Amino acid sequence: MNPLSPVAAVGRSTLALLAAIGRVTLYTGATLSHLVRPPFYFREFLNQLMVIGYFSLPVVGLTTLFTGGALALQIYAGGARFNVEAVVPQIVAIGIVRELGPVLTGLMVAGRVSSAIAAEIGTMKVTEQIDALVTLSTNPMKYLTVPRVVAATIALPLLAAVGNVIGILGGYLVSVLRLDFNGATYIRNTVEFLEPSDIISGLVKAAVFGFIVALMGCFHGMASGRGAQGVGRATTNAVVSASILILASNFILTGVFFTE
Amino acid sequence: MIELRDVHKAFGSNKVLQGVDLKIDKGTSMVIIGGSGTGKSVTLKCVLGLVTPDSGQVLLEGQDVASNRSNAERDAFLARFGMLFQGGALFDSLTVWQNVAFRLLRGSLKKPKEEARAIAVEKLRRVGLKPETADMFPAELSGGMQKRVGLARAIAAEPEIIFFDEPTTGLDPIMAGVINELIREIVVEMGATAMTITHDMSSVRAIADNVAMLHGGVIHWTGPVSEMDDASDPYLRQFINGSAEGPIEAVR
Ligand SMILES: Nc1ncnc2c1ncn2[C@@H]1O[C@H](COP(=O)(O)OP(=O)(O)OP(=O)(O)O)[C@@H](O)[C@H]1O
Ligand SMILES: [Mg+2]
Prior knowledge:
Helix content of chain B: 25-40%
Strand order of the largest sheet of chain B: 6-7-8-3-9-10
Strand content of chain B: 15-25%
Number of strands of chain B: 10
Radius of gyration of chain B: 18 Å
Low-confidence stretches of chain A: none
Mean pLDDT of chain B: 92
CATH architecture of the domain at 1-80 and 194-245 in chain B: 3-Layer(aba) Sandwich
Oligomer: heterodimer
Largest sheet of chain A: none
Largest interface: A-B, 16 and 26 residues
Distance between the termini of chain B: 33 Å
Distance between the termini of chain A: 52 Å
CATH topology of the domain at 1-80 and 194-245 in chain B: Rossmann fold
Structural class of chain A: mainly alpha
Bound molecules: adenosine-5'-triphosphate, magnesium ion
Structural class of chain B: alpha/beta
Number of strands of chain A: 0
Shape of chain B: globular
Shape of chain A: globular
Number of helices of chain A: 9
Low-confidence stretches of chain B: none
Radius of gyration of chain A: 22 Å
């Protein structure tokens, strides 16, 4: 074996990574430029708002409900070590609203929506429907990508807002039913503690996650290889890359919002 | 008039087109024949710009189609074409009539919904489909029906140039006859220019003014359909007769 081959392998993957970043960047640029130029397919946008937003509500609701409940139990148990069990409402609220609400919503929607978008667009590519769109004088970026990206960017903050409320409700139910908190006090503590900036920062994050989810679905769908295998790979790539980008951008955004 | 000049296209190491020269006069019907996998579909896609040739030119009325850079120019260029894809390529999220009327529901050719639907139903009738099919989804149709919906979509906006990629494959002989007649009608009555790919020799005789045979990445033989049967070219002879013996190897 050539002693340099591990180095070559590292070089190759670095180049591949850079090339991928370049392609995603170009694709993002193209999406944004089509976004601001007519025509805008409003009906497609409404459809996608339904598919991405409305139909994700049950998943997001269940995820945040259970997470809020678990969070309350953990904080109670952890807080007991310092005799500060009473901080449950405040920490649940801040944990859900700033972090878990938007991030879990983003991740769940990434699993549900990125994959569906990538599979749909990938299948369209493989069965020449994208070519057919072009010959029918319809730009696939405008007809497929832009409505999905805009819909997801708008839908995610709304979903995250609902997720926040349900997550806090999960904490409330556990605290009141299991941990003997007073319901009215719990709600008062939550409301008085939360700052508008906590909520807004979380919703801004969610909007960024929405953009990422739809963009990754469309990008990998459009880049799909030929055949069923190509579509399968595109679907996996979409979910994995969307999830990683959500977590990475969450870290960066948290740094931007909360370091003085 | 459409002209291809020395068009080359390779996918990786697979050299598909290796210098295709072809002329199609306005208002005539050209049929391309050739073995499976020789690049017939790729040739059509090169003209439409769905596949970019590695080298060579595609001219439409003397103008290089690659010079249509801006979106408006591309739109104007594509608005002159209709294309039936080999696999149909119907949009499975839309109903049959919305597929057929796709062009009439948006963009520069936009018509009121009722009118667009009426046109779609009329085009469906011309390809032998009942009005009831209009509200079905492509997945509910048989392969041959999907093919005919694709055909109806290609001709819906009455384009001047129409490409048909295997219009009669998967159809019963009677329906194939109906479609052959329809294509002939579109050329003769509407003065459209047609480029058809087919493997069906009876279809070739019914549709073609001119025939071109693609083999080995180049146009191996071309001429009027009347000269096809008298041609002495062994490749063409083998293809017309469909014999396993001859210069074209059966395993490619
Ligand atoms: N997008 C693509 N990527 C890679 N290879 C391709 C692509 N499109 C076509 N090819 C290859 O180009 C060659 C010609 O394909 P094409 O579809 O033009 O064949 P064809 O002459 O239409 O055959 P058939 O009669 O079976 O439809 C094939 O070897 C095919 O694998
Ligand atoms: Mg073909």
